[in-house]
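User: New here, any thoughts?
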Amino acid sequence: MTTTPGHTGTDPAQQAITPHPDPAHSEPAPSDAMRTAKPPVGTGASPLVAQLIALAFILIGAVGIMEVLSSTGAIKTTSRTAAAVDALDGLRSDSAWVPIVGVVLVILGVLLLPIVFKPRPRKGLPLDANTGVYLRTRDIARIAESALAGATTVTDVTVKATRRQLKVAATTLAAKDRNAAITDDLRSRLAPCVAALERQPRVKVSVHNQGPS
């Protein structure tokens, strides 16, 4: 069989029945994995500083409005601005109050700088997966409590979780000579929960006895 230049030699009928990959249903490339989400963070102290500054501007604005109303005769009140200027009138630049006020303002500014620029505290831990999912510390505590439910001879469990430590306090009716076995059992129940985290917190287990010693 002869073919003309530029012809592939493929039967047009076979081309019509040959399935073509659907871009909408094609398998995603490895690089198309879900991007990691931003870690959840706390509020921090910056909003408090911003609220104080906003409150100061509101007070200054209120004083300005009162001054305008007082100067136009709309209200009868003593001018706060005039009183402040009269109090400062005659204050010499070499007065002892000038450097004291300057030092106080500088100290306040230096104390506020770390608060304003301090990064907000992180509140979650990432899972060891390509899902971009974070768990908050209180969620980790709930998962740990669920994993410890039904432990033998354990009547009560209290879990406190931080980004660096998972603290478990268990109450048991067993004798003290079984505390080591109970601790190992609780740690084995917590192992899958901790292993699912990218950065595993340190696990601390304490057992308190209510039964015979």
